[in-house]
Amino acid sequence: MGTQGIVADQASDELVCHCAVVSRKDIEAAIAAAPSSTFGSLSNQLGCGVQCGCCKPLLLEMLGQSPWFDVVEASRRVLTDGHDHERRIVQIDLRLSDEARYPQVAPAQHVVFQAKLDGAWVTRTYTVIRQSEDGRMLSIAMRRIPNGQFSSALLDADDDAFAALPLRIAAPSGATDLGDDRPIVCFIGGVGITLALSLLHGLRPGERLHVDYSASRRGDMVYTDELEAAAAAGEEFSCNFRTDDRDGFIDDAHILQTTKRFPNARYYVCGPEGYTRNVRNGLRHARIDDADVRIEAFFLRSGSAVVQRRSLRRSAYLTGAALALLPLALLAPALARYVPNYDHNPGHEEIECVECHTRAPGSTRQQLQAKARLLLGLRDDDSAFGMSPVRNNVCIACHENPDDRHPAHRFLEPRFAEAREALAPHECVSCHREHVGTRLSRVDTGFCESCHQDLAVKDDPTRPTHEALIREGRWNTCLTCHDFHGNHAHQPPQDLRRALTPEALSAYLAKGGSP
């Protein structure tokens, strides 16, 4: 598996963490404000490095640490049949120095891989297919992407040029396989087969693994001999091969049939974007819970979605509107030292505008150019105009709490996907919107239901029990006992009659003193 990468010597407004949308400038600003920053403190403040882990070595490098292992020798071997030379798949074997103490890669983990191209380190991530017992020899597989900077440089170079390329890898990262006793089913497309091989090589006794492997044609499939040999060797592993030219594209009927063969299974999906989308929808139609499906994407882009090209008329209207509003930007310097002229949130009465609202990077001309390119479909990611958006790092700069029971970055974990869609708890302003004059801008205080519906407390001493409260849907009582962020020295009562009254809670969440 490989993902869209990052140039290590990139501009400050380029993304370092794609999952949390954190730029190099954001990280540099956080380190400048707190020179003693650690990887953990940056993760807490910005939310970077807590999901896929791809950005961890880049963060460590920005903190002055050296997370890299130099590759002393590399070799290549073409795996596909040569029918489509421009999109061939090549195995690359990487040997580290004899002194390197490289950890063993767990099933489903990946490694961050860098090559120095034109004087700059360029980053990609790949799943490790196999690793030697001493850890110093690792193999990955890479598909050549037409016009791809990284794959073309490594796969098109002649042997001498390839041998001269500086290469290095970081320690393995990313979530490992759960390793429970349920069957594992992998829906794999193209070079995504590397994920299935990682799981196969890490298969534990008694585990069951099935791989459904799709490719455009048989000659574009790789490692089929190894997969078939593993399937013939025992009943713990099975595989099915599909080719588009013979079997057609994978459809809901095939996916449903596969899910029925493996009840109570958990699923991995890895492949090109279209394939992944089709399989994910097919699993939903088969009533497979999203929590049982792990998507391994290797088509990430710098933005969250590909921008659709807009019509010329719409682009002209929007550009005209932006130009008409441009003179308002001239007022920004004069207003910068003012405090808000609406209701202040408690404790924010003396905060000046510029303490939260900072100027966007680049000149006004550059910002307008970026907006115009976005409107014309020539740029995938948006850019700020005038002022930068207020993000979590601004709030946490004053409100950081290392013992926070519900830090915003925690909700970036995949298991909270539905909560993010419904409530956006990973954004401070979802509950604490500024300029509304209250501590809590969210009116409904029963939001705990989004994550705690399946809460079970063994030997629950409370009266009434949590089970009874959940059964009766009394979610508005949660905050009368529990301090959401843990900012107060407070022991939750065991009797609901001793909890805060709804009136006292509402008064505090508005503007009142601590109850």
How would you portray this structure in words?
With 515 residues, the protein is an alpha/beta fold. Among the domains are: 184-297, Rossmann fold; 312-388, no CATH class; 398-510, no CATH class. It is 30% helix and 16% strand. It is built from 19 helices and 14 strands. It has a seven-stranded antiparallel β-sheet. A five-stranded parallel β-sheet has the order 12-11-10-13-14, with helices on both faces. It has a two-stranded antiparallel sheet with strand order 1-2.
List keywords for this structure.
515 residues, alpha/beta, Rossmann fold, seven-stranded antiparallel β-sheet, five-stranded parallel β-sheet, 16% strand, globular
In short:
Helix content is 30%, strand content 16%.
